[in-house]
Design goal:
About 40% of the residues lie in helices and about 20% in strands. It is α/β, with parallel strands linked by helices.
Length: about 280
């Protein structure tokens, strides 16, 4: 198994970025392994994928890690770049974005919603460490209620996109996303691989939300410990499959919405309209 993992990493990732540029115990490495495992099982080579990213922990870990082509956008703008690339690139090219929760659900939320609205064929992997950990550990848009952070020393109490039944997945479904899934890799790695594969195969907008532990800031502020096993246990106790939620479940995992290939894809619409205008002078 270790030999297989080593060969997998060697095929897709630059050795100078291995094992990781993230903090020891960070879940980003596990999340990235899920993504490249999905590439491998789909038979995708580095030349088949454009792997983009943005700012923060997810951006720092992802940028220049992939051996193939990639890009880094400014905070929250990776989706706008990806939409442009979707029009410019052949349809068989896969565009995958690894972004953080701030990029996806904070400064980038409107760009994300518009990418879903037009059903652009991109796969967004949200590596959610539950706050702004690269700037000290402030609470964010998915920080669980009651959690102590650098900016909520008495516990996070603001309503956000993961509180009191308000789940960001419902927003994205309403915006037009055609595939949505959530997985905590610590608890369901194999199912996460399958969801990422389905997301990539969907000819439309897909998003896989993957919350993961931050040992350095989140665990230290909330649990008072940087021992990885303690934050891993905390995550697992609050994770359950959809339909099997418990009173303390924060992350219901599995496929939230699958309408793959059910809507016209963005670049096809653009090129179809452009061709019709060229031929007839009208839409």
């Amino acid at each position: 198994m270790e030999l297989y993992a080593s060969k997998l990493i060697e095929e897709y990732l630059r050795t100078r970025k291995i094992p990781s540029t993230a903090c020891s115990g960070c879940g980003l490495g596990m999340n990235h392994k899920v993504v490249i495992q999905a590439f491998k099982e789909l038979g995708l080579k580095t030349a088949d994928v454009i792997w983009g990213t943005s700012i923060g922990c997810a951006g720092r870990q992802t940028f220049a890690t992939f051996k193939g082509d990639g890009f880094a956008g400014t905070h929250g703008r990776a989706y706008a770049i990806a939409r442009g690339l979707r029009i410019a690139l052949p349809p068989e090219k896969k565009i995958v974005l690894s972004v953080g929760d701030g990029d996806a659900f904070g400064i980038g939320l409107m760009h994300l919603i518009h990418a879903a609205r037009v059903n652009a064929d991109i796969t967004v992997i949200v590596h959610d460490n539950l706050g702004y950990q690269s700037t000290g550990g402030q609470f964010g848009f998915t920080t669980p209620m009651g959690v102590k952070t650098d900016s909520s020393p008495y516990g996070m109490f603001e309503h956000n996109l993961m509180s009191e039944g308000m789940d960001v997945m419902h927003i994205l479904k309403g915006a037009g996303a055609t595939f949505l899934a959530r997985h905590v890799v610590l608890a369901d790695g194999p199912r996460a691989v399958e969801s990422v594969k389905k997301a990539i195969l969907n000819r439309g907008f897909s998003l896989v939300h993957m919350p993961h532990p931050c040992v350095t800031n989140f665990a230290m502020k909330h649990l008072g410990s940087r021992v990885p096993v303690e934050i891993f246990r905390w995550f697992k106790e609050r994770t359950a499959p959809l339909g099997q939620e418990k009173p303390n479940t924060i992350w219901a995992t599995g496929i939230w919405h699958d309408a793959s290939n059910s809507r016209a894809e963005f670049s096809e619409v653009v090129w179809g309209a452009t061709e019709k205008i060229r031929r007839t002078g009208t839409l």
